[in-house]
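Dear colleague,

Following up on Tuesday's group meeting, I ran the structure prediction for the two-component complex that the binding team flagged. I've pasted the input sequences exactly as they went in, so you can double-check that nothing got truncated or mislabelled along the way. The structure tokens for the whole assembly follow below. Feel free to forward this to whoever is handling the docking comparison.

Inputs:
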Amino acid sequence: MRLILLDNSNEIRGNFYPLALSRPLWELRCGFNSLGQKLIDKVGANDVAYFVPDYMADSYRGKVEWPVNDSSVLDGDDLLIVDPRVKAESFDVTANPDKIGSEVGLDEQGNVLYARIAKDDLAKLPLAPAVTRVQARDEVGKLIAEAKEKLPNIRSALPRWQYIWDLVLANAEQITADFAAAGQHGIEGTVEQPNAIRGNKKDVYIAPGTIVHPMVVIDAEHGPVYIDEDAQIHSFTRIEGPCYIGKKTILLGAKCREGNSIGPFCRIGGEVEESIIHGYSNKYHDGFLGHAYVGEWVNLGAFTTNSDLKNDYSAVSVILDGRRAIDTGSVKVGSLIGDHVKTSIGTLFNTGSYVGPMALIMATGKPLPKFITSFAWFIEGVVTKGFGKGKLYEMAKMAMSRRDCQWTKTEQTMWDAVFEMTAPIRNQAIKKSRRAMLNR
Amino acid sequence: MATVEERVKAVTARVLKLDPDEIKPEDSFTADLGAESVQSIELVAMFEEEFGIEMEEDAALSVETVGKAAEFIAQVCKEQGVVTDVS
């Protein structure tokens, strides 16, 4: 059986911006790892293929071991095609069609949640050979349409992730579940004394290579703490469970409250609560980050702080597309920060802020607008073209080289596409800002 | 109609809060007029608004003096079909 993760239309993917602008939905994280890894583990797949939006295919191909947008994978084996928004823990569909046959699971609107297609049934679903890889995503779309028409349909109530903040809100619970699934506890790394572990020691795992300096508190009373390999936990750090600290992450006297998934390769100080932080991002200094989702290669300057709770305790709204506010239904939502964002010292993000990838933020001393477009140079309270995207690329390249990572041509091509996709909203913001500048 | 250079001086004076009569073509935006990097960005934005043009950021921000800015903008206007001639 081959598991195929097929990304959604841009309309649906927009619910997971700004992170999804630069990655397929299954690369979003919750708990210990990505949504994709959870589906792979759940299904027990050892053969996987991906179909992503065309503009990110080349870049993504360089990051994963399985085929990307290669329509040849649509033949030769039983297929299980899954919408990556389906929650893995609820995915109870039998993957192997051997005895039960093919089946297409539909939600109440008739959208395909999954398609299990036996190899023999593939012959019933004529598939024009893809001429290029660019067309491959269309091919799998056609295959699913054919499958829906010709194979048995069943109504499915599988729950799905709807918005990016759902992942943040579910993170603490997911960490607890992932800790239980990992089945590891105990200290395999080095814990220098004196140290304090509160709660049940079975709820703590410190992986080999990790060093916990003296005067660290690990509080597992309300949830498990998993510190992955080669991390460094500096003195005066307090980690409250549920919490996952990724490989080679450094906590610098951090107040690491419950519900965090951080790393790998992050450097985190200050206060962080109920947040997901992708790899290679830094929040070295003091400042509060709560109920936030932060992409990779982000640098948050000293005293960068976000609000995650409104003074009137009402539900937080978020603007994902630059136009329309969406009621999250939650009273706690912090910032959604895209890849390669950089903030200056003293940046203040309002409750439910959206910061597009590659944005560069200079603080104004006041909470910033709730929507800051991708590639914005946000300076003196307005969106400008700044020094342009070339300079942003230079900075990204520099940041990556400092961690022995490479800025590749395919990555730049993907970011060029993101720049074009987000141009209309950015240009509007620039125009509005120009008017504000003229009126100063 | 003012010349390109006069309009460049006027914008520069407004952004940097200077007297336009004190601005000379050979003045460096940074060394002589005290423009910081943030103000340079604002200057480029305001030149684009003033002349109705789009400038390539790197090239625009590499221009050092008021006179060179006027030449650069005149060239961009020409390339983009924006009329700047004095009648």
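Residues 164-182 of chain A form the longest helix (19 residues).

Cheers,
M.
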